[in-house]
Amino acid sequence: MNRYPFLNQLQNRELKTDYSAGELSLRSVAELQRRLDYPDRAYHVIHITGSKGKGSVAMMFSSVLQEAEAGLCVGLYTSPHVVSLEERIQINGEFISETRLNEILEEKIRPEVEKMANSGKLVSFFEALTLAAFVYFAEEKCDFAVIEAGMGGRMDATNICRPCLTVITNISLEHTAQLGTTLEAVAREKAGIIKRDTPLIVGDMPTETLKKVGPIIHGIAQSRRAPDCWAGIHFPCATFPGVELGMPGEHQRKNAAIVAKSADLFRNFLTIENVWDGLKKARLPGRLECVRTAPDVILDAAHNPESVGASVLWLTETYLNRPIHILFACAQDKNWRKMLDMLLQMNPERIIFTEFSASRVESCEKLAEFVRKWGKENDELHENRNDELKDEAGGNGNENGNRNGSDRKAEILTISDPRKALKVAEEGLTPDSVLLVTGSFFLLREMVPYFREKK
Question: Cα 9 from chain centroid?
Answer without folding.
Answer: 26
